[in-house]
Every structure is written in structure tokens, then in C-alpha cells.
Amino acid sequence: MAAKVERLVNLTVALLEARQPMTLAEIRRRTRYYTQGDPESSRRMFERDKDDLRRLGVPVETREVAFGDDLGYVIDRGAYELADVDLTAEEVAALSLAVQLTGTEGAHLALAKLAARAPDPAELATSPTTRVSLAPDPVDAVADAVVSRTPLSFPYRTAGGETARRTVDPYAVVQRRGAWYLVGRDHDRDAVRAFRLDRFVGRARDAGPPAAYVVPDGFDPAAHVSGPEVARVDVEVAVRPAARWTVELHGGVDTGRTRDGQPVLRLRGLDPVRDRSWLLGLGDDVEVLAPPELRDAVMTALRELAGQEA
After folding, report:
1. Closest by alpha carbon to 220, among 1, 18, 6?
2. Which of its termini does the chain have fewer beta carbons within 10 Å around, N or C?
3. What is the arithmetic mean of pLDDT over 75-102?
4. Is 146 exposed, middle or buried (0-12, 13-18, 19+ CB in 10 A)?
5. Predicted confidence (pLDDT) per residue in 173-192, tens digit
């Protein structure tokens, strides 16, 4: 299930970054997916992924390319990005305080645009205040580097607490037991290594031009972040409409049954430790029905959360 989610995320990133419609051949080169088996099988996999993205609300468009008979694919950013947001003056004031604390230039500009749309005149706080230092989020830089094949340099904290700068050819981003990893060739060690994104301790910067390297054929990023095998389980959940797309994104399939009027979906091969976190995040929009051990664990965690909020 995680492999499909990663594939959909990377396909979305590639199509968003495309300056012009990408053919399937270009998508294969850019993402390293849809190359397994015979061409027809890989095309069918791509068509399924494309349909899944559209069903989830991602506006994947099919267009003719300038040369040749192939079709191109692209995501319309205007249709994909967040719709207009209307805020009250009180909500703008609360956001203004958050912006003053973080002090990011982009946040100031975004807040000014939102404040201009408020129904009542909204003044932005300009008095100096204590700022909270936020660690730069490496996700965007890493995703861009994976797509464009650009080497990255970043300060990294090891499991032992030591910090050193690493220079890496980013091959892929994968998830393992709730943590996201950058997998790529470490220049200093001349070997493939995996780096947890939450251990980046500073800004990731380009360390070379785009298209500076080639990902080896048949490269399997998951093999470089594998740990002890976890006994996976099939899970059944009753889902409210607000959470259905999330469950389907994780591989949920409708069983045709219902529970208290809500459809029951089945997810195969979940990690009962890692996947419990996103199930908990859906709150009462999802009820775990089976297996009993996971249901009990989720119910216990929800009761503990409710007790903390009381």
C-alpha cells in the first residue's frame, strides 16, 4: 500500500513541476516508475494511477504534444491549488500573531493577501515580538531535486547526535514505519545511503546542475530503508464520507458491506504500528472493525486522547 501512495505522490510532483505536458516515456524517465514488465502492463499501471489521482480530485489533464502522436499529461496548477479563502478580522488577527512569531517573508505576503479579502478592515500587527525559529522544511527541496535529478547538500544529524554536511544524488523519497527518507548516492562514501528527513538540521541546497546523474536501472529505494520485518495485517474499517478518499489513497477497497449505514472498506497488508497513526488521525470518521487487536489499540488511544482534552 505504501508503495502505491509513494508512486502517486511522486507522479503528482512530476506533473506539477512539468513546464509542458509530459509523455509517458518522459514520466518513466523522470519518476523511474512504470518500467516494470512489458510496456502494455506498465501503461495500464499508469492509467490506473492517473484515474486514481483524478478520482481524488487531482486535475490530471491529457493534451496533445507539439511533435509526434503521443499524448502528454500535466496537472493544471490553477485547478489544483487551494480555492479562495475568506477570513474574519479575528481570524486574520490570529494568523497575524503566528506570522509575527515565525517572521517568514512569504508568510507576511500571503497574510496580506488574505487580510485584503476580510469582510472587515483587518490591520496586520507590525510591532516587534519574540520570534520562534523554525527548522526549514526539506520536503520541497528534496522533492524538486528527486524530480530534476539535482545533487543536494544539507546538514544532517546522525542517530548518534553528530552533525555533518552531506552531499547526495537524490534517487527517491520513501516511507518506512512512519518516517520519510531520502535515498541516494552519498558523494563522500560513494555508496547509496538513506537519510531521514526529520534529521535535516538546516536548509538543503543545490550542489550541482539539474540532470547531473542517472538513477541506476532497477534501483529499489525501499531495499535501502528496510528493517526487521513486521507482521502485516488486513484491516476492515467503517468510513464516513469525509475520510473515504484518505482510506482509498492507502489502498482501501469497498467490501460491499455497511456498518451503521457507513461503507466498510478493506485495507490489505497494513503495518499495525505505522498505519495506526494515520487511522488515529481520522478520528471518529473511521471505525476500525478488524482485526480485534488493532481495534482495541485504536480505541484505547482515542480514549487516552479524549481524557487529555477533557
Report:
1. 6
2. C
3. 63
4. buried
5. 877 666 788 999 999 999 99
The letter for the amino acid at 48 is R
Distance CA 251, CA 232 (A): 14
Same domain, 89 and 127: yes
Q: Count CA within 13 A, CB hemisphere, residue 259.
A: 16
Residues 6+ apart with CB under 8 A from 309: none
Q: Which residues partner with 60 through β-bridges?
A: 75
- Which residues have a Cβ under 8 Å from the Cβ of 44 and sit 6 or more positions away? none
What would the DSSP string read from start to end of 170-185? EEEEEEETTEEEEEEE
Residue 151: helix, strand or coil by DSSP? coil
165-198 core/surface letters (b: 16 or more CB in 10 A; e: else)? ebbbbbbbbbbbeeebbbbbbeeeeeebbbbbbe
Entry field: residues in the chain:
310
For the chain, the straight-line distance linking the first and the last C-alpha, in angstroms and rounded, comes to 35
- H helical segments located in 117-174: 139-148
Instruction: Residue 6: name the closest of 145, 184, 174 by CA.
Output: 174
In the structure grid, which three cell numbers stand for residue 66, read together?
A: 507539439
Kindly report the CATH number assigned to the domain that includes residue 144.
2.30.30
- Listed in sequence order, the residues at least 6 apart from 285 whose beta carbon sits closer than 8 Å to its beta carbon are 239, 240, 242, 243
> How do 262-270 and 233-239 pair as beta strands?
antiparallel
Is the same domain home to 143 and 175?
yes
282-300 tens-digit pLDDT: 888 899 999 999 999 888 8
Q: What is the rounded distance in angstroms from the CA atom of residue 237 to the CA atom of residue 291?
A: 10
Q: Do 67 and 88 share a domain, yes or no?
A: no
pLDDT at site 243: 86
Quote the DSSP letter at residue 78: H
